[in-house]
Amino acid sequence: MPSASRSIQKAGPGRVSASVPQRKTKPSSQPVRRRGAPATRVAILGGGRGGRALLEIFAQDPLARIVGLGETKLRTLGTRLARQLGVPVTQDYREILNMKEVDLIIDVTGSPEVERALQKIRKPSVAIIGGASAKFMWQLIDARIRATTEIEKTLSRYQSLFRRYVKEEAESAVDEERTRIACEIHDGLVQTLVGVNFKMERCGDLIQEEPDKCLALLSEAKHHLKHGIQEARQVVFNLRPGQYEQLNLLSALTNYLDSYQKQHRVQVAFSHTGSDTRLLPKTKVFVFRMIQEALQNSSKHAGASKLFVQLNIQPHHLSAVIQDNGNGFDVKAVFQNPDKWDHFGMRGMKERAKLLNGDVSWESHKDEGTTVTVSIPLTGKDSARNGKKN
Question: What is the bridge-based pairing of β-strands 267-273 and 306-313?
């Protein structure tokens, strides 16, 4: 910001031209001046909007020092700010004109009497700005102050909206995850426990009359209970495949696919290239969740007997392909129906991929199976890690 001493040309009586200094935030006290730099001593006549604007700007200039404010009314915006800054305030403008330690007097009163008094000053060491020049100066400064304030308000509003959006997105993701988990528990574990409970009640009726049949039912209940325990473990594993920082993507996928194969009695082939050790934790977790969602969709809707999962990790790109030999579906029709889109978990996969600056695509035809392709460009940090590894 140009200082007062640099931007104002000193002269004798009359007016001088001045460049307008930039506005800073509203000060609470005058700044400390740099050592060795002479401070321009500024006195202001008028404590209205113009005086307030000038006080704000000069109070932030390290090469200016406000030595006085002249204003007949003591409850104006300028006088209030002057008190906060510790600037002396007088109701008699003549005290300002008679000050010895002053280099610059700026008149924004608009008073003809004050203007005539300023024209009579014969001090070569004092520069005077008044009339149209002073009015233009403070109006320009005030306009910049108001524009900056409006920008700050707009920025604050957008920041608030962004925080609200992020919060809503996070809550939506949590709700979707809760719904998915609830469906898994209801369709799997709960149904198994209901069956076991029914068999145990039936055993209570048959234990005396038909003990052999009771023993058979107990054997079935034991088998179903073991299956329920396995399903409960699967739900827990799906919730938390491992600590984010320590998650090994390849090991987690291998364990999950083994469990998936046993649970759903589907043949699963898994192949991979590259190393996951340098991937960011967020990347590993999101990729795991997207593959998991694709497999859940296959088990619920595809009726597949074979699954192929391929993961390819390159220094600057990661891709995952999940392919099944199931029923297939009309991809275009599903994307045109928001309810189906949510039902198939596609929205969650799309959003996770988008958070990684990537994308997910589906290719499917009736009775020809489905292929899901996840494509993720690795970030600079991911690439740097992989570069160090390789």
Answer: parallel
